[in-house]
Amino acid sequence: MTLSMILNAGVLDTGSTGFMLLATSLVMLMTPGLAFFYGGLASKRNILAIMIQSFVSLGWTTVLWIFFGYSLCFSGGDGGIIGNFDKAFLSGISIDTLWAGNGKIPEIVFIAYQMMFAIITPALITGAFVNRVTFKSYFIFLTVWQILVYYPFVHMIWGGGLLAQWGVLDFAGGIVVHATAGFAALASVLYVGARVDKNSTPNSIPLVAIGSGLLWFGWYGFNAGSEAQVDNITSLAFLNTDISASFATMSWLVVEWIRERKPKFVGLLTGSIAGLATITPCAGFVPLWASPIIGTTAGVVCYIAVQFKNKMKWDDALDVWGVHGIGGVFGTVLLGVFASKAINSSGADGLIYGGGIFFMKQLAAVVAASVYAFVFTYLMLIIINKITPVKVSEAQEIEGLDNTLHGEKAYDEGVI
Prior knowledge:
Ammonium transporter fold, 15 helices
């Protein structure tokens, strides 16, 4: 073996490996956190129905990921739209195989880390159509949407595919996760229509607080872990994440306080998620001074998006489009503005550093991803409805999906 072969072979970095195992665990925790967040916002008759949609993804997405999901995302197809089946069933991967991306962590750790992203992304969509969709149709949706929306964009951006070759950047999922999920949510809302009970109120704001706290906590693994090793960019992504979330929390609180005349706790919590979603594509590519600007504007822009949604009477029950969809799009555009090669040499220079072409690429990519996710989701729901009803009956919706679909209740009201 030559010296160059030895140097290129990589050496296991135990510190980075340990950190990535922690980051993977943090991202896994985000899915139960999302279930709590959505479960608290849902009406009392639909708590379990919305929570099971997140938890089932933990199981079923893992099965798909091991069978062929990881392979379609991260093998073959350089410069293409989708990978191949070379690593299906984790073929050719042993406990000694290092991830080719940096040669520092075991590939099985990278597989697990990316799997957690695949688990939570379709679960994000469920907040839009709470208490209106049958579980059977959702299960089909969960399967097909991952394969034909999520996997292609993972490959195109993170797997060396078409958009990566074009120079598009997305540090932790502004396009791949939030834009696609958010606009799929909007398509779902427009397809299934409004709820019968439009005055449905949160059943447990403390549960929403627990869920948002777990999401914020897990987001450090989501963003900082996307560097896939421990270095200065890891630290940058970590702090950028917290700063953006904090400034968005306060800007949403202030704007809503002025408009509603009272400080709203649910609004404050929603603002934090808006800041987290918006910084996600930028976290490891922009300087620290940019994150307060990103967070502050995210809180305002996402709040306006939610108000616009209300004006249009789109019954996106838990504001998935306004927070995740617009947050992901806005963050991707701001990455095109604030990115700096002086901060991350693996990145690019944004608009303020003379990177006009890079800005236009970011804008084009996120618009294309959003349009594709919207159109595909709408058409997919039409097809699924021909196989099994997508929308529950009015009687089921009024009684609640916990009982009619699952035969369970979140709370035993006969116990004191």
